[in-house]
């Protein structure tokens, strides 16, 4: 039976891969193909993908597949030879960034991009201290994991790490959050400097995805960026999650807040699934680094990755995916608000474009409903809707769909959510 096959696969998996590879769901999903916002198992059952932000222009988008195939059949080398694709793409991408951010370097993962960004910031400022939020995730290299508290207790934080609280607008309100976070940043910088660590920079994902999704109202983060600059540090915008049209109102997450960072890192959705990430930076900051340290990354910026990234950008523009993220995201939020009327356990709904968090708290006590939220996700999976949770208590339903999500997809998600809430008696 397929259950026996499943069990056999799990044993093979553990034997070959060890215990570190975690699967989603008690009854794991095995998918074999995908298109748009839908993926299919071997029996042809279709699942709605409300989780994957890497394939943000849709699973196996034909324009991207064609560009990858064409370039793979022609040539794939590295950045030691002249090649048109990297130049064309870099010029297009720089045009999307603020004028001051005028150089771009390529990596293969978000972790590597943040790793390089921290090294560049330290080199420029002469400091070592990096400040992140309480539940941040910025990657898995030795350096960056020390600034990724969400990895958990087993991971030692860097002695040069300062922690900001989660910008919890549910707790502090939308209006107060900018001043509150700027004050906390100043406190952390002072603490850091008191122990002899000079502040080098603030590293922030402006949607605060692993903290529990707290985009807040546009503009508030500028106060925090200004405070970082006033203290002589750099602002590193980790755009791995909010970048590339995700928030619906701007191409970049920081752009919603009306300030210019010093370094911008990006990855995940950049090439729709082909390994491709980047660190964009002001030329004076980069020059100070490259004058001392050569940087080469074998696979980064290779012609296939650049062809994929370029085709991904074409689709974002041609299909107005920023507009779609804005429109479908707004529709999603209003339907969730409708559902919340009948379900008082929905304590807060917050989102920007197609990145939405739904906060489940016990209506009687206000306690986070961690167990129930996990059960909810299992129920949604049985209805073949793939979604997840996040936040320090795991009580935030995480809705992060491909950017091609349609109104019909929202309906299907909402039906599965309403049915699952009813089934759980929530
Ligand atoms: N920054 C953020 C905000 C992320 O969410 C992630 C990945 N979840 C990373 C960096 C690391 O990216 P990668 O897994 O590609 O190394």
From TrEMBL:
Q: Any idea which UniProt keywords this protein has? A: Aminotransferase, Pyridoxal phosphate, Transferase
Tell me the Pfam families matching this sequence: Aminotran_3
The protein's matches in SUPFAM superfamilies, at most eight in alphabetical order, are given as: PLP-dependent transferases
Q: Signal sequence: where?
A: none
Q: Which InterPro entries match?
A: Aminotrans_3, Aminotrans_3_PPA_site, PyrdxlP-dep_Trfase, PyrdxlP-dep_Trfase_major, PyrdxlP-dep_Trfase_small
Q: Which family does it belong to?
A: Belongs to the class-III pyridoxal-phosphate-dependent aminotransferase family.
What name does the UniProt record give this protein? Answer: Aspartate aminotransferase family protein
What is the source species? Bifidobacterium choloepi
Q: What is the lineage of its organism?
A: Bacteria, Bacillati, Actinomycetota, Actinomycetes, Bifidobacteriales
């Amino acid at each position: 039976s397929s259950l026996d096959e499943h069990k056999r696969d799990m044993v093979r998996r553990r034997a070959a891969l060890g215990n570190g590879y975690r699967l989603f769901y008690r009854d794991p999903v095995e998918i074999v193909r995908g298109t748009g916002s839908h993926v299919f198992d071997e029996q042809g059952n279709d699942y709605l993908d409300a989780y994957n932000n890497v394939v943000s222009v849709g699973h196996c988008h034909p324009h991207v597949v064609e560009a990858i195939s064409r370039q793979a059949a022609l040539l794939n080398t590295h950045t030691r030879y002249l090649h048109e694709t990297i130049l064309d793409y870099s010029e297009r991408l720089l045009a999307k960034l603020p004028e001051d951010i005028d150089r771009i370097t390529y990596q293969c993962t978000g972790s590597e991009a943040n790793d390089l960004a921290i090294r560049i910031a330290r080199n420029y400022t002469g400091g070592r201290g990096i400040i992140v939020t309480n539940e941040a995730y910025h990657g898995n290299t030795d350096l960056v994991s020390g600034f990724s508290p969400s990895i958990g207790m087993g991971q030692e934080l860097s002695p040069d790490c300062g922690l900001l609280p989660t910008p919890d607008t549910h707790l502090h309100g939308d209006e107060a959050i900018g001043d509150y976070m700027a004050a906390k940043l100043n406190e952390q910088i002072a603490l850091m400097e008191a122990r002899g660590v000079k502040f080098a920079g603030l590293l922030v994902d402006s949607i605060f995805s692993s903290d529990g999704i707290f985009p807040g109202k546009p503009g508030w983060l500028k106060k925090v960026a200004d405070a970082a600059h006033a203290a002589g540090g750099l602002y590193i915008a980790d755009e791995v999650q909010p970048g590339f049209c995700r928030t619906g109102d701007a191409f970049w997450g920081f752009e919603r807040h009306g300030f210019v960072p010093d370094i911008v890192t990006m990855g995940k959705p950049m090439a729709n699934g082909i390994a491709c990430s980047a660190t964009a930076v002001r030329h004076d900051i980069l020059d100070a680094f490259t004058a001392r340290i050569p940087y080469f990354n074998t696979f980064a910026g290779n012609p296939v990755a650049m062809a994929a990234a370029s085709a991904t950008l074409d689709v974002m523009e041609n299909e107005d995916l920023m507009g779609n993220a804005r429109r479908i995201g707004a529709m999603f939020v209003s339907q969730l608000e409708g559902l919340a009327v009948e379900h008082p356990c929905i304590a807060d709904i917050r989102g920007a474009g197609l990145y939405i968090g739904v906060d489940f708290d016990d209506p009687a006590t206000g306690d986070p409903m961690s167990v129930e939220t996990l059960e909810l996700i299992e129920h949604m999976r049985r209805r073949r809707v793939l979604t997840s949770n996040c936040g320090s208590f795991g009580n935030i339903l995480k809705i992060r769909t491909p950017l091609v999500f349609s109104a019909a997809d929202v309906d299907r998600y909402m039906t599965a959510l309403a049915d699952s809430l009813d089934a759980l008696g929530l």
